[in-house]
Every structure is written in C-alpha cells, then in structure tokens.
C-alpha cells in the first residue's frame, strides 16, 4: 500500500474523530431544542430524561471527513459515492424525524427500502455468492443487496439499548472491517470504515455509562447503513466463498442478536418490530451484571468475532482453531464469574 493511501485513511479517522468529539455538545443542544428526548420507559434502564439525537455529531464527523478527502480520492467523485451520499442522507433525515416524532415502523421500513435501492442502483451490489455453490444473482442481486443493507441498518439500531453499546460495538466492527477492506484493496470502503470508527469513538465519551446523551435512531441507523454498504464494497466483491461468513462474523453481535430477536418474537407471535427485554444486553443485566460490565463483555465478544473473521479471511486453520478455543475459554470464564457473583449475592 502506498504511503499516501495510509495518510488518507489516517486523515479520515482523525478528522471524523475530532469533529464528532467537538460537536457532540452541540448535538445535545439540538436534541433539547427539537424535543428529541428519551423519557424513562418500563423496559428502559435510565431514570431521567436524556437527549437522544446525539447521532448528529456522528453523522457530521463522518461527512466532514468525506468532503475533506474528496479532492484527494477519486473514489469520492463517483456515481457510487453519490448514491451512497443520497441514501445515507435519507437515512439521517428519517432518523432525526423518528427521534422527534416516533414514526410508525412501516413508514420507517418503506423509507429505508428507498434509501437502500438508491445505493443499489448506483452501483453497489452483491452480484455473486459461492456458497454452497457458485450462483450469479442477476435479477436477485438488487433485492438481496437491499435486504442486507436494511438488515444491518436495523441490527445496529436494535442493539442500541445500553449506554455506549452501539457506539462501541460499531467502532469495533468498523475497525475490523477496515482491516479486511485494506486486505482486499477497497479504498472507498476503507475510508468509510475509518471515518465511521473515528466518529463513533469521538461520540463515545459522552455516551458511555452514565450517558449524558444518546445517539438515537439518527446515529444508530446511520451506523448500520454505513456498515452494510461498506461490507458489500469491501467483502462481497473480494472474498467470494468466505464473504458471507466473514461479513457475518465481523458484525456478529448486532446480526445474531437481531436474528434471535426476530425468531423470539415470531415464536411468541409478537410483531417483529416490537420492543422487548430479550436482547443479549438486557439478559446480561437481568443476570446481575452492571451496565458497564455488560457492555464490556459485549465489546470483548465483538473483538473476538472480528478477530475470527480476519483469521478466516487469511485462511490460517491453526490460528482459527486457537481463536475458537480462546472463545470457548472466555465463555467459561464469563460463566464462572457469573456463578461467583451469584454466590456472593446469596451470601450477602
């Protein structure tokens, strides 16, 4: 990789981090001004009203870095990037309106489909899969790509239920996805993920427990949208047979948590988009972990699955086995820690 490419990626991260960090207080004021406030709910974890449009800072940091780099990166002058820009803007406006007015889920889904289709028809597509056998998607390319983008968009939104979880997990996913995109030589996807990681980390200090500001749908759906699009640009066009496995692993926590939530609600005959306390972060807290402990556990899980994705992409069987063994050991450690915590509470 040429030195100037590394410089572009570093600038993408640094600018987005700085802009997000500096504008987070402003996003809090905007939230209060527009009435985007998250009031305590029965299934919620906070006791006081908290502004919930902090995602404005994440979006601002990301797009400022894009426009700063535009003169230096030809990929930021393409129809593909313009399509992403339009689609992401639609998602942001939708998120802001939802944070203020609590929109109907069917309306949100319809607008998300429109945003995804803008991206699809400007050149970002999953054109072929090679598992279990080589398949050229052809007419199914557009709907499958839109389904993936919408799925990841809502997956990140659904894990945004504990202070610092969505921002931290998204930054971890972005960093691992960035590494994979560097390996595949996808400069636009690398810039996207570097900027996204910077924006998340710039926002995290005021969002970590105890949070003074939430990102809301403005931030969470934007994060998911960028991760969904970036994964298509950087993974599905390069890793062929392993693309699906690698993509799911690098974003395993939001994807699997959402999948289980949908299955759980279907089994219980509840609306798919309904809210509940069955998410993994809720279960950890109900088991006795504090919000910080639960979030840190989920951070570690995200780091491990991201590491597994990279090892699989590098096709190193021994390293993959070691990483899998480490995952089992870590799970046992969490179980033992939980058991000791329960025993201590019973003694007290």
How would you explain this protein's 3D organization?
This protein is mainly α and 348 residues long. The chain has one domain (3-275). Helix content is 71%, strand content 2%. Strand 3 (128-129) and strand 4 (135-136) form a beta hairpin.
Briefly say what this structure is:
This protein is an all-alpha fold and 348 residues long. It has helices spanning 3-34, 55-69, 79-101, 105-120, 141-158, 165-184, 187-203, 216-236, 243-250, 252-267, 280-286, 291-314, 317-347; strands spanning 37-38, 50-51, 128-129, 135-136.
The ordered string of helix (H) and strand (E) elements is HEEHHHEEHHHHHHHHH
Number of strands: 4
Describe the oligomeric state of these chains in a short phrase.
Answer: single chain
What is the count of DSSP helices, taking H or I runs of 4+ residues? 13
Largest β-sheet summary:
2 strands, antiparallel
Rounded to an integer in angstroms, the radius of gyration calculated over CA atoms is 20 Å
Strand-helix topology:
Elements: H1 3-34, E1 37-38, E2 50-51, H2 55-69, H3 79-101, H4 105-120, E3 128-129, E4 135-136, H5 141-158, H6 165-184, H7 187-203, H8 216-236, H9 243-250, H10 252-267, H11 280-286, H12 291-314, H13 317-347
Antiparallel strand pairs: 1-2, 3-4
Helix pairs in contact: 1-2, 1-7, 2-7, 2-8, 3-4, 3-8, 4-5, 5-8, 5-10, 6-7, 6-8, 6-12, 7-8, 9-10, 9-12, 12-13
Question: Which keywords apply here?
Answer:
single chain, 348 residues, mainly alpha, two-stranded antiparallel sheet, 71% helix
